[in-house]
Amino acid sequence: MSAGIVKPFPLFDSYPEFRQLNFNDLSKERPVILDLLRQADQSTDPTGSYLAVRDFLHSYDGNEGTFNSYRTHVERLLLWCILVAKQPILSMRRTDAEAFMEFCLKPPAHWIGPVVKSRFVRVGARKKAPTDVYVINDAWRPFNLTQPKVVRKLADEANVEAPAPTAYRMSSGSVAQVFAACQSFFQFCTDEDLADANPFRAVKQKSRFTQRNTREVRGRSLTTLQWDFVIETAELMADEDPEHERTLFILVTLFSLYLRISDLVGREGWEPTMGSFQKQGDDWWFHAIRKGNKKDKVSVRHDYLAYLKRYRATLSLSPLPYPGEQAPLLRTLNGRAGLSDRHVRALIQGVFDRAVDRMKADGQPEDEITNLRAASLHWLRHTSATFDAEFRDMKDLQADLGHESLSTTQDNYYDSLDGKRASSVRNLRVKGH
Fold it and tell me: Are strands 133-136 and 120-123 parallel, antiparallel or unpaired?
C-alpha cells in the first residue's frame, strides 16, 4: 500500500450510481476508485477482491435497502482484507472470519466517524456536467458513531447541542447483520466457484457473534401507556387538521399489519395500491411484495377497517377498496402517487414528538416519556407483535410478520410471555396437591 494511504476509503457508490456501472468490465467505475485499487498492496489482489464484492452486490441490486445493508458490511470486510489483514478476500479462512468479527466489535479510532451521507464529493461548477471530477469525502468512515436518539431528543427539547458520543459500541443485532451479510457473500462466491469454502459458516454457530439478543426487540417496543398516547395523539392531530388523516392512516397501518417501511411505501417494481387490500369471504388481506421480494399477504384485523374507511373518505373514495382498484395507497398532499420512506418517517416522528409533549403536560412518569423519545417507526411493528403474541398462534403471527423462521418469532415475541409463564407456576405445590 502506498505510504500516503493510511485510512479506509469508500469503494462503492450510492444505489443509483452503482446500478449505472458496466458489470462486464471496469469502464464505468469512478477514476478515484480505480486509482486507489492500483495503489493498494497488489498481494491482496485488490481488483479481483473488489470485483468479487461488486458481483455479489450486483446480485442484490434489485432492492435498495438490501443493497445498502450488504454494501455496508461487505465493504468493511473488503477494506479490512486490503488494509489490515493484507490478503485477498477470497483467501479467508475461519480464523480470519473470527478476526474480522473481533475487529468489528472494536474498530480503531481512524475507522470511526460521524454519519456522512455522501461517500464522494463532486468537484465542479454548480451545474452537473459529464466532465465533473469526484473525490472521496474526507469525512467518510466505515463505522459511524452517533448519540442515541433519546440523547439527541433531550438536547433538542432543551435547545442545547447534544454531547459528543464517547465510545463506539456495536449492538448484538448489528453483529448478527455483519455475520449474516458476510456468510451470504461467501455463499455467493462458493456458488459461483470463486471460493472453495465459506469461512463464516465454519465459525461455531453458538459463538458470541451469532447469538440473538431478544431483549433488544422487547426494548424497542412501546408500552401500553405510550401506545395509547401515540394513537390518541395521531387522532387528535387528524381532528385538528385534515392533512393529518394520512398520518393517522400510516401509523395505524404500520401498527396493525406489522409492516416494515418498504411494505408500505413499496420497492422497485412494486407500489402498493388500494387494490392491495383484497376480501376473501368475510376476511380482508393486505397483499404485498415483502422482504426478499417475496409475494405475501397479511391478515387484516376487523377494527382496522374503520381507519381505512376514515382515510378513504378524505380521498372521496368508496368506503372499502374494490377488486383491482389502482388508486395509490399513499399520495402527496397535491395528489402525486407515493411517498418516500424519509417522508413517512418524518410524519411518524411528528406524532411521537407531540405525544411526548402531551405525556409531559399530563405528568406521566419520566421513564415512560424518555423511552418514547427513543422510539422510531420500526418500533410500531415490534409493539403490535409484542402486544398480540399472547393472543395469537405462533405460526399465524410468524406468517403475518413475514419471518422466514418460526424461531425468530418465538425468540423475539414469545419469550416476552415469561411473566405469564412464571405466574402460572407460582402457586403450584410440591406436596399436597
Answer: antiparallel
Phi, then psi, of 253 in degrees rounded to 5: -65, -45
Decide if 137 contacts 120 (C-beta within 8 A). yes
- In this prediction, residues 100-128 reach a mean pLDDT of 85
List Cβ neighbours of 4 (8 Å cut-off, separation of 6 or more).
none
The Cα 284–Cα 267 span in angstroms is 23
Reported as a single tens digit per residue, the pLDDT across 147-201 is 666 767 777 777 777 666 667 778 777 888 899 899 999 999 988 889 888 999 8
How many beta carbons lie within 10 A of that of residue 306, not counting itself?
11
Q: Whole-prediction pTM value? A: 0.65
Pairing of strands 294-299, 277-280: unpaired
pLDDT at 3: 40
Q: Is the Cβ–Cβ distance between 274 and 317 less than 8 Å?
A: yes
DSSP secondary structure, 129-149, as one string: -TT-EEEE-TT--SEE----H
Length, in residues, of the chain? 433
Rounded distance between C-alpha atoms, residue 180 and residue 200, angstroms: 9
**Number of continuous H segments (helices) and E segments (strands) in the chain:** 18, 7
The alpha carbon dihedral of 397, 205, 64, 346 has a sign of: positive
CA 13 to chain centre: 19
CATH topology of domain 219-422: hpI Integrase; Chain A (1.10.443)
Q: How far apart are CA 200 and CA 94, in angstroms?
A: 6
Among 83, 99, 13, CA closest to 49: 83
Q: 246 and 252 in contact (C-beta within 8 Å)? A: no
Q: Helix, strand, coil proportions of the chain in percent (round to 5)?
A: 50, 10, 40
Listed in order, strand segments (DSSP E) in 55-189 are 112-113, 120-123, 133-136, 143-144
Of 86, 190, 22, which is closest to residue 78 (Cα–Cα)?
Answer: 86
> CA of 130: how far to CAs of 32, 63, 123, 173, 261, in Å?
15, 27, 11, 41, 35
The Cα-based distances of 281 to 278, 284, 311, 322 in angstroms read 10, 8, 23, 14
The residue ranges of every structural domain in the chain are 15-191, 219-422
First-last CA distance in the chain? 76
Write the pLDDT tens digit of every residue in 41-95. Answer: 999 999 999 999 999 999 888 778 889 889 999 999 999 999 999 999 999 999 9
